[in-house]
Amino acid sequence: MNLIARRLLIAAVLLPAGAWAQAPETSDTDTETSVELQQMTIFGTAEALQRATGSAHLVDEQTLEAFDYADIHRILNVVPGVYVRGEDGYGLRPNIGIRGGNSDRSQKVTLMEDGVLFGPAPYAAPAAYYFPLSQRMTGVEVFKGPAAIQYGPQTIGGAINLLSAPLPDRRAGLLALTGGSDADRSLHARAATPLGDHALQAELVYLGSDGFKTLDGGGDTGFDKAEGLLKYGRELGQGRLVLRVGAATETSDETYLGLTEEDFRSDPTRRYRGSALDEMTWDWHGLRADIEHPLWGGDLHVTAYDHRFDRAWTKFNNFRGADIRDVLANPDTPRNQLFYQGLTGEADTTPGAGDDDLLIGTNDRSFRSSGLQARYVRHLGGRLDHSLRLGLRLHSDRIRRLHDELAYEMVDGQLERNNAPRSITANNTGRANALALWVQDEMVVGRWTIVPGLRMEAVQTEFVDRRAGAKNRNRNVTLLPGIGVSFAQTRSLTWIGGVHRGYSPASPGLSDAEPEDAWNAEAGFRWQGSPVAIELVAFLSDYSNLTGICTFSSGCDDAQLGEQTNAGSVSVAGLETTVSRMQLLTAGLTLQLEASHTWTNGEFDESFDSSNPQFGAVEAGFELPYVPEHRANLLLGLRANRWQADASVTYVSAMRDQAGRGEIPDDSGSDAYTVLDVAGRYQVTPRVDITARVDNLLDEVYVVSRRPFGARPGRPLAARVGVEMRW
To answer: Would you report the helix, strand and coil content of the chain in percent, each value rounded to 5?
Structure first.
């Protein structure tokens, strides 16, 4: 811990004054004292944000519209302290981590839409295989520090809250059409109208692409994805009721199979013939009811929700007689050459059941997540100017896994099923029931704001493994205290700090797993001047038990899926810096600059052996996998009366594929990369805009991930144009 603290101090001293960061923007609703029903925000006005005791960031509607990203990874590039790991180039399966948390399937981040958990099973199986389409959103909030105890269950790193379009008070509509490289296409339509005390809004988003990879022998590598949402609102005197019904679907010809190092450097967009049958299909359905009403001098907000998600991913799993990881890492050995040639279709495999059979399985899973939550906010005033916030959530979720595996042969470059019998590789159900209670009291004393809080999580899990004929139940009750403090030294300068106990619930399994547990601290300052805004925050997480949940995407076998590794004591420290500046260049022309930089150091404090391939045989002092030491983003924008031009430059240092120390080998982990995106918009009429965007303008080639099987690329250069109409 002392070594990390020294490094943190050195970084704080040596960091350039122009270190890159995004300064927080502000919205129009002060949710420190009230909650807007349509956009349950974490923070609100400039005054509320300046008073906030934690590090808060908002990717606002202006930034979202400038680039119109469908990939949440690219959206979050501007936020310090957030790490993303690409996989398919489109963000179909996001991997997001905050302040050193494991980014695999975003399982260590609290993910919400308008304040409600949207993960398929955020307690029983927190892997975020479903993620709402970004085009529907009008803002993305990220909150870290002690206030995270409001937004569990994952409370170590922080929370991400997506803001959907609110019901407007007048008729409004939107229609946007785009087309581009690789037959990329999208449609976004929204229409809303008030009807006296009622309001109705319908929204539809469709995305599709033929994909940027080329399958050996020909075939599909793209996707089609659609999401619809219907909102109905009604005024209830001083309160309001909103009902939502939504549905989403995806079919994508995606794979977990990557390339050997040599093949990647030769042709990074190649796909082996062995992945020709790989396809993911899923369907999501959601119901939600919100009611807000004054109560006892405060505001009460109650939400009931029910989400259902079903997915089936048919994909290459492995060879019968060899490990695909070893084949891709050492394809030139005499034995592995035979498997490699069968994988690529260069040679036929052995007729009948043999060691070189390609095992292709379908991971079929169904999820359900439902609950009731309430939030009560009341301003009490008094000598300490109290604002009391209370919260409750009753939640239940479930995952049902049924995985099978079939044997295929490669014959004349085509996959053909042989006569080997179908095998069941996983047949289990995990369930979780949770009660969460939290309380926070914001006290303002002169220029001081003090916010003590306490969260309680009571979780009961059950795991039934039908193949093993075994069942396990586990119960855990955890208290999570925290306190945040801010001091407004001047109207522009505010010092912030806080300490809280963070938590991640244990995964249901046959072993009695322990929750993830860490004490977290942050300290820094926020300068809101004109034309420059700066925020600098140092953070420290002291884990008594860091956990990792096995997923196929991390390289785990079917027998390990859902099982938890207890990694013991871990120390993570870092420094987040943000800077923004607005400069009037000439009459009618404005330059906007926003930048962010994050430095992170995460190390295991004790040695252990793990079957989780991201950990392996760990020694004290090993660095965490897939946590970059440096991550930076620079946004530049020019604004004129009828046009705008924007550029986003993102740099990410190389990340480890597995825990270790020293230099990262060239054929291990992800590459360091710098990616430049540019976008433009021209107003043809007050209601019609022409839009354009180029991703990866410099056509940077880089390995974005090697999990679970081989090197996979970030998206190469891609362009698109579109038209947007509003009324």
So the answer is: 10, 55, 35
